[in-house]
């Protein structure tokens, strides 16, 4: 039975709280101007949440949070100063602006410093369906977590222990304003339920889990389904083997495949580029992937996990390709990194929004059948990725694939290659998208990597 039930929703005062933050931002901008700043920007946030954890049928923690923050940045020409506070008293706000101004007066000029150009500010603010607050009482949250864990523990007799289950909800309000006259307001919510279980005994124990997360509670999987999936994943890892070192195809499951896209994003982001710390320097217009490979950014996607009409500089966002026909179309830039590179901002101050990697294949099982013999990776460990050279070496766990069938679990192995070679060797992107991330990608099959085992 799904125990996610409706609750009585109290009066929503979020719009009033947003206006309070907007008023504070305007007062701070006026004060910065009065103290001589040529430009200024203010970011205000108000976050509330509830997070509960249970283990073995007992309550472990119940945490209710409420955080507020104000950050002020001022510019005196091309000198910059920043200060922040969580205290909304007038004296504290006044002191925060004064501190930012004092810092700016003692810093060196930075030719790239300053607000983004006024003409680039967002002018339209569509409803992106990101606000779905959940009046989740602590007792109900505990019921959800307990139901999730119980379903997992009861799903299979080989489940011997639990690392616990959790349920959480949060809501965030934010305002960004600057001295161009721009003011942007955002509301977003986020909810999650998860469970981690242990199977087996002694040295043969294995751990795994599952979770569901969404902006709206009705988009969550049921606690029971999450628990059962956690159990299924955990017992599947029992009695792992090692492998002989070899060159073979490697299939990344959706939840780890997005890490490959993350390495791409890091390499084409402005900070790495202007520091000359990327293996993809001067790569716009270069084919990095097979000619069928596509990635599009969709910041205005309704109910997208990272949708926004403006970036961290107030610049209007827009749908835009990142990879077309395998070729890198642009970098990922905010106004500062763009100036450092002599380029124009792409509306990505603060990072990318919603990315969609186009599929050219079926789900994981279908791709495994296509690959024949190889390795399915469901877990990655370690940080063995060199962002300057692209060299890639990480500990991994997963399953051996033989004759197109997922045969048995493996662990204690390392997979290695170079990211440029790995990108070029991608043979399939699955339709089995993991929707728990703003990077929407299915399974990824890399045609050839080095797999090092102990056999």
From TrEMBL:
Domain Metalloprotease TldD/E central: 132-238
Listed EC numbers: 3.4.24.-
Alphabetized Pfam families for the sequence: PmbA_TldD_1st (PF01523), PmbA_TldD_2nd (PF19290), PmbA_TldD_3rd (PF19289)
Enzyme class: hydrolase
Keyword set includes Hydrolase: yes
Domain Metalloprotease TldD/E C-terminal: 246-453
Keyword Hydrolase recorded: yes
All residue ranges annotated as the Metalloprotease TldD/E N-terminal domain in the record: 40-104
GO MF entries: metallopeptidase activity
Keyword vocabulary terms for this entry: Hydrolase, Metalloprotease, Protease
NCBIfam families: PRK11040.1
Family: Belongs to the peptidase U62 family.
PANTHER family: METALLOPROTEASE PMBA
Protein name per its UniProtKB record: Metalloprotease PmbA
